[in-house]
Write a structure and sequence with these properties.
mainly alpha; about 80% helix
Length: about 150
């Protein structure tokens, strides 16, 4: 995050009375438990080929994530793909950085926003751009580039 972005964020937070929860995040220190539960999910997925067995095992062995980060738990349970695990891992890295004091909550949110943009927005824009390029005729292309 550059200085202009940080200044803008600080102004935005003041104007909208946004609560800074950095210290709460650092006190709770969830990243260790969440990472362990995530690893356990990977192990359980290799052990249990049937989704029903996998889900039951996760309910028993990934209690921390299920209790304290239910949305993450549900996402990983229903979509344990490599891509989803990679995204969750990047989120945990940001959480760890907040907990260690390397970044604050706002920098973490900023970096997470960039990650989401890269994962969800950029591919859509690229796909739209590629579709438009395919729709243009050669004559139109030549006229626009002459």
């Amino acid at each position: 995050m550059n200085k202009d972005q940080r200044d803008y964020l600080e102004r935005y937070m003041k104007e909208n009375n946004v609560e800074d929860t950095t210290n709460k995040i650092r006190d709770v220190k969830q990243s260790i438990e969440l990472r362990e539960n995530m690893k356990q999910m990977c192990i359980l997925r290799m052990k249990h080929k049937k989704d029903k067995d996998f889900m039951k095992a996760c309910d028993k062995e990934c209690i921390y994530m299920k209790t304290y980060q239910d949305k993450l738990y549900t996402k990983l349970l229903n979509n344990p793909s490599v891509e989803t695990m990679d995204i969750a891992n990047k989120m945990l890295i940001l959480l760890e950085q907040i907990e260690m004091g390397t970044i604050d909550q706002n920098e973490g949110s900023f970096e997470f926003g960039k990650l989401c943009k890269k994962i969800y927005v950029d591919p859509t824009i690229n796909e739209m751009s590629n579709d438009k390029m395919r729709e243009i005729s050669w004559d139109e292309y030549k006229r626009k580039n002459s």
